[in-house]
Specification:
The chain has 7 helices and 16 strands. It is of the alpha+beta class. It folds into 2 domains: 86 residues, eRF1 domain 2 (Nucleotidyltransferase, domain 5), CATH 3.30.420; 218 residues, Nucleic acid-binding proteins (OB fold (Dihydrolipoamide Acetyltransferase, E2P), Beta Barrel). The strands form 3 sheets. Strands 4, 5, 6, 8, 9 and 14 form a 6-stranded antiparallel β-sheet that branches. A 5-stranded mixed β-sheet has the order 3-2-1-15-16, covered by helices on one side. A 5-stranded mixed β-sheet has the order 7-12-13-11-10, covered by helices on one side. Strand 5 and strand 6 form a beta hairpin. Helix 1 runs antiparallel to helix 2. The chain is globular and about 65 Å long.
Length: 305
């Protein structure tokens, strides 16, 4: 049975994506330009208020309302404490990691938002040791990521524990060395192979990596290519951050066209039909980065003949 992705990107106001198997629509998604999600975006932000009663800070990042940053979502690198104390905290965290089989840890695809066990242990320990009013100051500059969009009268929920999603991997540039395998990958042979592939990447100390469910049957070369793409993306984010003044957007999460290519497409698809020249070029170019061998399956839809 044929399987096709249809992308309607012909109109600037709205983009639509459908997955069609045979004559049946299996999945449908759309994105309005007026209501683009903020989730996943990274901003250079400024603390406007520290609230001891909430153990949280409110920050100006460029949204309609100030963002909410809970204390346990603030990386210790931002603590206004002696350098020696900060180094001791991170050394303690790395020591914990060495006591565990990092690459044997289970992780859901969504766990990169703070669900890794070592990260959670570190957060709890820091909250017992410090109070936000003692280590975070007004006007302090932070690099934050949106984890929950603005809703009603509430501002966006933010974190400083960053994550970047690729096709097969999630890179956590400031979470800690090591990584995990999605719990949804259940075959022992796949898990063993992926652990070896992740170990061979030699992820730098201070970073973490999760192999997503989509990476289950991928080769070591495919995993490596995705990881290297994320490393390049992180380097671009760092360079943009250094050249920016808060508040400023540093990185915008992929739009629907790119997310569809990244998260929905696999080798079982017969092709991708894209209406709209700009959307076609974006889908094709992104496919060339993520899965070069599949780029030939991206076609510009020019109407029925």
């Amino acid at each position: 049975m044929s399987k096709t992705m249809l992308i309607d990107a012909a109109h600037a106001e709205e983009t639509r994506v459908a997955i069609v198997e045979g004559r049946q629509v299996e999945e449908f998604d759309f994105e309005s330009r007026a209501k683009r999600q903020l989730r996943g975006n990274i901003y250079l932000a400024k603390v406007t208020r520290v609230e001891p009663s909430l153990q949280a800070a409110f920050v100006e990042y460029g949204g309609n309302r100030h963002g909410f940053l809970a204390f346990n979502e603030i990386h210790p690198d931002y603590y206004q404490i002696p350098v020696a104390d900060r180094e001791a905290i991170m050394a303690e965290a790395h020591s914990d990691e060495d006591d565990h089989d990092d690459l044997g840890r289970d992780s859901d695809d969504g766990d990169h938002e703070g669900g890794l066990a070592d990260e959670e242990r570190l957060k709890r320990r820091l909250m017992r040791r410090y109070k936000i009013q003692d280590v975070i100051k007004r006007r302090q500059i932070l690099l934050v990521q949106v984890v929950k969009d603005e809703r009603g009268g509430k501002g966006a929920a933010l974190t400083t524990w960053l994550s970047l999603a690729g096709r097969y991997c999630v890179l956590m540039p400031n979470t800690g060395k090591g990584g995990g395998i999605s719990r949804k990958i259940t075959q022992a042979s796949d898990r063993k192979r992926l652990k070896a592939a992740a170990a061979a990447l030699h992820v730098p100390q201070g970073m973490g990596l999760i192999i997503r469910t989509a990476g289950a049957k991928r080769t070591k070369a495919e995993i490596k290519r995705d990881y290297e793409y994320l490393l390049r993306l992180w380097e671009t984010i760092r360079e943009t951050t250094l050249a920016s003044n808060a508040p400023a957007m540093i990185y915008e999460e992929e739009n629907l066209v790119r997310r569809a290519v990244r998260d929905m497409f696999d080798k079982d698809f017969d092709g991708i039909q894209v209406e709209g020249v700009q959307g076609f070029k974006e889908a094709r170019d992104f496919m060339r980065v993520l899965m070069p061998s599949q780029a030939k399956k991206v076609h510009l839809y020019q109407g029925s003949r």
